[in-house]
Design brief:
alpha+beta; D-amino Acid Aminotransferase, Chain A, domain 1; 2 domains; ten-stranded mixed beta sheet; eight-stranded mixed beta sheet; 7 helices; globular; binds 2-OXO-4-methylpentanoic acid
Length: 355
Amino acid sequence: MANETENISIEKSDSTKINSVDFSNLDFGKVFTDHMFVCDFENGEWQAPKIMPYQAMTFEPSARVFHYGQAVFEGMKAYKDADGKVFLFRPKQNFERINKSAARLSMPAFPENYFFEGLETLLKLDNEWIKPGIGNSLYIRPFVIATEPAISASPANSYRFMIICSPAQSYYNSPVRVLVAEKFSRSANGGVGAAKAAGNYAAQFYPTSLAQKEGFQQIIWTDADTHTYLEEAGTMNVFFRVNDTLITAPVSDRILDGITRKSIIQLAEDLGINCEVRQIKVEEIKTAAKDGSLKEVFGAGTAAVISEISAFQHKDELFEITGAEDSYAKLFKQTLMDIQYNVSEDAHGWRREVK
Ligand code: COI
């Protein structure tokens, strides 16, 4: 693997789009910064990485990604503190996960030094796009696609690894209403549910659009075999608070090993909140909603941060969740963001400064 070189060739943009962006009114993922990172895999090796102006790319119509969906991605964020210092949050986890996802889709691993040098150089070039202030961030999207022009159904011989960045505020502007899946499935045992594979998201769009027609923004997926266990929400892992205990599903080959999810499990331990990682029956949560012991439901993810879930429907039963005064969702969100924005101590060494 050609991963010894540390030189990234940089072609700077001769203009910036930044002045046309309203940073106080951002729709998630619609605006991109001035530069992007690109590295091609050819002849069994990752080639010299480049940073260039953000631009459209040309691929042959036969590029394998268009036919067999060999595509994986990550979601990360950069945060700026009050002194203008820039931080990433647990970025090694994203690096490791994109390579795990790639391996599951028979794609080559990306070298760690290329990942971090590429990312940090890009962030330094587009530093102005990272706005200070709690809630502002730069969403970072590393991804890999199969570029080889060939349509036999087999893994490609050429790939492109890229990083693009988009200034972000919140993903969901208000509490989310969710439908519990009864028929459709997001993933199956032995499948690719644990990978951040592009197709996992495409597969959700149709059932989610049906749910949206009924007034729900998201689906909470259940196990494909029996639809009796609650799993994840597709853009977020899910936590349930029953009385003062937090419950979340264990990761498996069906569920994404969310970095926000594992951070919350750790923060719960730090804060003395009991957190059970175990299978959760839909019926258990419905019973808790009926007897008043279900205090909160919230989702956790990089884009969504922590999003309160205000209602869920299963079959014909709709449950409104009024929320607790001593909200765990708010407590975790504050605690997490204080770490991410360099406001509080970083007891677990989760921040990485981009110097
Ligand atoms: C993220 O939280 O980074 C995700 O990947 C969710 C995304 C589909 C917006």
